[in-house]
């Protein structure tokens, strides 16, 4: 084998539109952008399987059922790239279930039986003694389809769908968020697999909505990001998002409207880890400044949610001075 150890996977650059087929050398290929854990699977010449994260951390202990599925369907001397995902009972991708697997420790094997994950494969780097990394995507795709042609429908290893028509891809783009899929990845048919390099595009489905400004990081005079909330049906104001960093001009305009809050504010003085973005337990508590929660902000959000919050940073668009906090949708409703 040419690939004996972990590989830094190829990456994508975010763009705001779906390009036409002519935008890519040799034409564009469109694939779903899965909301899961990126993983490369290496099956060595003895049939041993290793799963590696995009940060080169081993995944074998966290996803033993995926290891077994890869062993069952991929021949020795194979390296593929894909995404580990978990479909919930409602048919949507469940990222929170993946997080449970990642930190479950001794419960991982029990969860592997109760909440099995799938491995969606979208590229092949090596197979049958051939190094496919220098080959164009179109050729790699043909090799991947041959490799997975006889995989049974019940397998946890799944071939990623791929489209060539931009019109059909745009239809996909509108439909897929209902399944918890974030958007599309766009690739050039003639493109090589470039380890650790950005050569693909990703387009996330975004929706405009509103939230209440309940706090800021930085200072009230120079806010860096916004901590945003929404009311639950019970009447409790809950943290649901954190904005991307504000531009200096935006920060100055928002600061002029903020008022410091006292101890009657419904949120704690320091936000626990995971409340304002990021994986719970993977970061320190977030220091911030509480403000009177009477300002409504218009924001742009993507489809990724967990634990009743938007997982990724949202984009601040403007203040909606004509709206009251009670006018904002409840929970994560977008209507």
Automatic annotation (TrEMBL):
Keyword Transport: no
Organism: Actinomadura napierensis
Family stated for the protein in its record: Belongs to the ATP-dependent DNA ligase family.
Domain annotation ATP-dependent DNA ligase family profile: ranges: 119-236
Keyword Electron transport listed: no
One Pfam match: DNA_ligase_A_M
Keyword terms, alphabetized: Ligase
InterPro entries according to UniProt: Adenylation_LigC-like, ATP-dep_DNA_ligase, DNA_ligase_ATP-dep_cent, NA-bd_OB-fold, OBF_LigC-like
PROSITE patterns named among the record's database cross-references: DNA_LIGASE_A3
The reaction(s) this protein catalyses: ATP + (deoxyribonucleotide)n-3'-hydroxyl + 5'-phospho-(deoxyribonucleotide)m = (deoxyribonucleotide)n+m + AMP + diphosphate
Molecular function terms, GO-annotated: ligase activity
Name of protein: ATP-dependent DNA ligase
């Amino acid at each position: 084998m040419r690939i004996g150890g972990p590989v830094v996977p190829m990456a994508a650059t975010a763009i705001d539109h779906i390009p036409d087929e002519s935008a890519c050398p040799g034409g564009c290929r469109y694939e779903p952008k899965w909301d899961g854990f990126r993983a490369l699977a290496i099956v060595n010449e003895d049939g041993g399987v290793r799963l590696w994260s995009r940060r080169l951390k081993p995944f074998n202990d966290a996803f033993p059922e995926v290891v077994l599925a890869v062993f069952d369907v991929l021949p020795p001397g194979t390296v593929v790239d894909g995404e580990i995902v978990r479909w919930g009972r409602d048919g949507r991708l469940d990222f929170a279930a993946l997080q449970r697997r990642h930190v479950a420790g001794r419960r991982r094997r029990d969860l592997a039986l109760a909440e099995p994950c799938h491995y969606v494969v979208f590229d092949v780097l090596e197979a049958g003694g051939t190094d496919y990394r220098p080959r164009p995507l179109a050729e790699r795709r043909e090799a991947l389809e041959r490799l997975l042609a006889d995989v049974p429908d019940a397998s946890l290893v799944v071939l990623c769908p791929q489209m060539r028509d931009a019109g059909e891809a745009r239809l996909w783009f509108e439909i897929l968020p209902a399944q918890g899929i974030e958007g599309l990845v766009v690739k050039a048919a003639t493109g090589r697999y470039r380890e650790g390099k950005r050569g693909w595009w990703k387009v996330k489905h975004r929706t405009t909505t509103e939230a209440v400004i309940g706090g800021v990081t930085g200072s009230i005079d120079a806010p860096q990001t916004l901590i945003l909330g929404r009311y639950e049906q019970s009447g409790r104001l809950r943290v649901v998002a954190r904005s991307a960093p504000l531009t200096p001009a935006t920060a100055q305009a928002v600061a002029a409207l903020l008022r410091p809050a006292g101890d009657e504010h419904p949120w704690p003085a320091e936000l626990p880890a995971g409340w304002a973005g990021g994986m719970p337990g993977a970061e320190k508590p977030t220091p911030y400044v509480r403000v009177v929660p009477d300002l409504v902000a218009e924001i742009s959000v993507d489809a990724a949610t967990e634990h009743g919050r938007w997982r990724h940073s949202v984009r601040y668009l403007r203040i909606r001075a004509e709206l009251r906090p009670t006018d904002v949708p409840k929970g994560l409703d977008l209507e």
